[in-house]
Amino acid sequence: MITVHHLDNSRSQRILWLLEELGLEYDIKYYKRDPKTLLAPISLRQVHPLGKSPVITDGTLTLAESGAIVDYLVEQYGEGRLAPPPGTLERLRYTYWLHYAEGSAMPPLLLKLVFDRIEQQPMPFFAKPIAQMITRRTKEAFITPQITQHLNYLELELGKTLWFAGNEFTAADIQMSFPIEAAVARGGLNNNRPRLMEFCDRIHSHPAYKRALERGGVYQL
User: Fold this and answer.
1) Which residues contact 179 (CB under 8 A, 6 or more apart)?
2) Ramachandran bin of 91, using left for φ above 0, alpha for ψ from -120 to 50, beta for the remaining angles
């Protein structure tokens, strides 16, 4: 039996969605973030040394990293579903987006989250203006332009095909859902990029997406 070690408000929500799309039975072990630090509990380190989510266990196998988990589940249990045939252009695009989601799209969004929180943290009155100036300039000079560049690129790519790997829905779209939803929440993604917003509407309408939310809980990015 597959067990998903599910941290609230985390990337592991995608794994629940993938398992629902594949129609697989699975258990969930729930973990709560520390309300002050928002970090995962130490108990997750008992599953994987890094103590991060998502992590799955499948028999004697313990596997971390979203892309690796998606790859494993589709290869092991997909039976040809949710991935284009090997050797096709669609398969190459599938592999690209599977890695792009975490390797390229998420870093600037994560930096935006970190710098936003620095601005909101309590600190001595004499330090706050300096901290705000540094965070504001860093966001203006580097983080926001990077997010804008990625969102423009994604909007352009969805003008070529209906889904990221081609005209069929694949696990790459599940993998890409998190950075796009994060961009809606904190990266300035709105109706000015209609293809990306329409992508969000389409994934949210998937019955398996809704079932994953019912099991994993509504999450905030």
Assistant:
1) 101, 105, 106, 109
2) alpha
